[in-house]
C-alpha cells in the first residue's frame, strides 16, 4: 500500500513508518521537524527512514491547509496514519495555542485531505489523557470522557469527535487509538524514562510527581506499533448492533471505531524507577513533588476490544523494555546527555 504517516520523524511515527517499510509498503513521511525537543534526534530518525527506497519525506506543517491539500492531491495515499501532534500535557499549560493549531486545525486539514482524496482508512492518535477526571479503572473506551484535565486532552477528545463527524457525513473509515504511556528506544526526551535516565547518569536528582504515587500503563513501542499496523489493515466499518438509544462511544452506525492501546499491566511509578536503576546499575537521587496540574494519578487500559478485533496482545514486560531503552540511550548519548548524531 501507499501510506501517509504524519509525524514520521517523531517517536511513534518513526517506528510505524519503519515497520510499514519493512513489510514492503510505500511510505510518505510528513513532519515539520519543530524544536519542541532536540531536532537532531528527529533528523536521526528521519535519516534511518530515508535509507529505504520506499520512503519519501515531505516537510510541512499540519496547519498549512494548502500544503496538506497539495500533498494529498499529488501523492494520493491509500491509507493514512496521523501521528503528528503537539504532544505533552504540561507544555499545554505554557503554550495552549500550539495545541489548537496542530491538533485541531491540523487534524481538520488531514480529515479534508482524506475526504477529498478518497482515502480507504484513517488511523489517528488519541490519548489516554482523554479519560481525565475518570477514576474507574481499567479505563474502557465505552466510558464517558467529558471531563478532560488539560488542553492537550481536550484536543484529543476533539479529534475523536471530528473524526466521527467525517465518518458520518462522508463515509470516511476512521479509527482512533488512545495511546497509554509509550516508551522505548528513539523515545521523546521530554518523557519520564528519558528524563530519569539522563539525570541518574549525571548524578542529578529526578523529579517524581505526586510524591511517587503515580501508576501508569507503560507500553513498549514494539507492542504499540504492532497494534497500529494491525488496526490500519482492518478498515473501520459501521457497527450493525449500534443502538442510538444507548450509544456506545467506541463505535457507531458510521465507519468509526475507538480503541485503547496499552499494556494492560499498570505499574507503580516507583517500581518503574527501580527497574531503571537496576538496568543502569546505580540508584537515583529523588526529589518528590506534588501532583502537577493536568496529570492523572493512575492509568490502566482495558484493551479487550482491540484484542478481540485484531488479536492485539502486548508482550513486552517493563524489565525487557527498559533494558532495551537503556542500551539504546548509552549508544546514542554521551556522558553529558548530548545526542551523538553519528551513533
- Point out poorly predicted stretches: none
Radius of gyration using CA atoms only: 19 Å
Instruction: Please state the overall shape, judged from the principal axes of the Cα atoms.
Output: globular
Main sheet strand line-up:
3-2-1-4-5-6-11
Return the structural class: alpha/beta
Walkthrough of the structure:
By secondary structure, the protein is of the alpha/beta class. 40% of the residues lie in helices and 15% in strands. The chain contains eleven helices and 13 strands. The protein has helices spanning 11-22, 39-49, 65-75, 91-94, 96-116, 151-170, 192-202, 221-233, 269-280, 304-310, 318-332; strands at 2-6, 26-31, 55-59, 79-82, 121-127, 174-179, 182-183, 206-208, 215-216, 219-220, 256-261, 267-268, 286-288. The strands form four sheets. It has a seven-stranded parallel sheet, sandwiched between helices. It is globular, with a radius of gyration of 19 Å. The two termini are 32 Å apart. The mean pLDDT is 95.
Write the layout of secondary structure elements.
Layout: E1 2-6, H1 11-22, E2 26-31, H2 39-49, E3 55-59, H3 65-75, E4 79-82, H4 91-94, H5 96-116, E5 121-127, H6 151-170, E6 174-179, E7 182-183, H7 192-202, E8 206-208, E9 215-216, E10 219-220, H8 221-233, E11 256-261, E12 267-268, H9 269-280, E13 286-288, H10 304-310, H11 318-332
Parallel strand pairs: 1-2, 1-4, 2-3, 4-5, 5-6, 6-11, 7-10, 8-13
Antiparallel strand pairs: 9-12
